[in-house]
Amino acid sequence: MKKNILPIAVGIAALACLTSSTITQLQQQLPPAPTIKLPQGFQANIVADSLGPVRHLVVTANGNLYVKMNNVRNRKGLYYLTDNNKDGIFETKTGFGDYPGTGIKIKNGYLYSSSNSGVYRYKLNDKNEVIDTEKPELLVSGLVDKRADNAKSFVIDDSNNMYVAIGSYSDACRAPGSIVGIPGCPLRDSVGGIWKFKADKPNQTFGDGMRFATGVKNSVGIDINPVTKTVFVTQHGRSLDNKYPQYYTSQQVAQLPAEALYELKQGVDAGWPFAYYDNFQNKYVQSPEYGGDGKKSPDVKYLEPQVIIPAHFAPNDLLFYTGKMFPAKYRNGAFMAFHAQSPEMKKGYLVAFVPFKNGKPSGNWEIFADNFSGTETGSVSIQYRPTGLAQGPDGALYVADDIKGTIFKISYSAR
């Protein structure tokens, strides 16, 4: 007998009955998000609140939400949110799962969810409800988890390959008690990259995976480009600390190195920990732990970033937009959720957009949704902090905040 089926959601047919004017009226009734600044024609509304430390999220085909939680103390690891009366507010919350984590996807009739050391999946019924919440299928276990930079974000392609990010808990692969890097950095064998597993094979361990890309210090945002079908990631850069005053001023420490958006292919190397990308010199620079002086270029050629992101922005999610609600310029472009603030720009806690053409960036990143912090600079008490992105079946953009556990719905209506 099937058990623990989540509450039934309103079907797709019910959504189809809503006219565009009805949807607009419902949006106008939602609680507004007064601090959020958006381009003309866009509107942000709060559709869920006080959930706790939300990480990534996904929207089902019938408009309900699954969200992943980063802390299970007095909470569950996942929540299923439903809007049963179709007023635009997710008033029903069903929790399940006893593990924290970040990644969450729906693919091929399953809900996939990552802990900080592995990946699970739950079979869905035809209403996108988890059939058995108590018995997830364990797909991958044994991934390194030493608490620091331990999010296991992932994405699944159309060939059932699952690409899992394994961040490095070590900032620069230094020898214990030293400021010198370990020769060859053996940590790269298990962290600081993307590993490929099968999305439909249970009980895989780390050893069953294939290293797909290396030198990526910590990737929390990961998605597949809908045009090129290649894997893109956002990288959290390392910190330079204040260990090398002979090479870096305190201002440089605050503004280096760049974070980045990368396109990955089998075998690429983005440089960590041997080199980092300098967003002022616009080149890779040898890391000080490995003989660098803040100017020296490495002898090895590393993967060039597709887009340069200022230091310490903490890009925590990546989403290629394929919907039709937003204007044409957004189609197949990439949204990024910045979880922190850049000292260089004195700005942060925002959602950025990168325009794409023919599968490649056609311009630099631009601010799309700003002022989640509640201030112009984000330098005082932070109100909201973007951490997750998802696209709804109507083409709306959902943004998760991990301070209050607020979820925003950003919609567009031409005026």
Describe this structure in words.
The structure is a single chain. The chain has 415 residues and is mainly beta. It has a domain at 12-96 and 219-412: 6 Propeller (Neuraminidase). Helices cover 5% and strands 35% of the residues. The chain has three helices and 30 strands. The chain has helices at 12-16, 20-29, 250-255, and strands spanning 42-48, 54-59, 65-69, 78-82, 92-96, 104-107, 110-114, 119-123, 137-141, 154-156, 161-166, 193-198, 204-205, 210-214, 219-224, 231-235, 259-264, 268-269, 275-278, 283-286, 307-309, 315-320, 334-342, 347-354, 356-357, 360-361, 366-369, 386-391, 397-401, 407-412. The strands form eight sheets. Strands 6-7-8-9-13 form a five-stranded mixed β-sheet, with no helix packed on it. Strands 10-11-12-14-18 form a five-stranded mixed β-sheet, with no helix packed on it. Strand 23 (334-342) and strand 24 (347-354) form a beta hairpin. The model is unreliable at 1-5 and 7-28 (pLDDT under 50).
Based on helices, strands and strand pairing, what is the structural class?
mainly beta
Shape descriptor reads: globular
Fraction of residues in helix:
under 10%
List the uncertain runs: 1-5, 7-28
Radius of gyration: 21 Å
Mean pLDDT: 91
Describe the biggest sheet? 5 strands, mixed
| CATH topology heading of the domain at 12-96 and 219-412 | Neuraminidase
At the first level of CATH, the class of the domain at 12-96 and 219-412 is Mainly Beta
CATH architecture descriptor name of the domain at 12-96 and 219-412: 6 Propeller
Distance between the termini: 52 Å
Strand content: 35-45%
Number of DSSP strand runs: 30
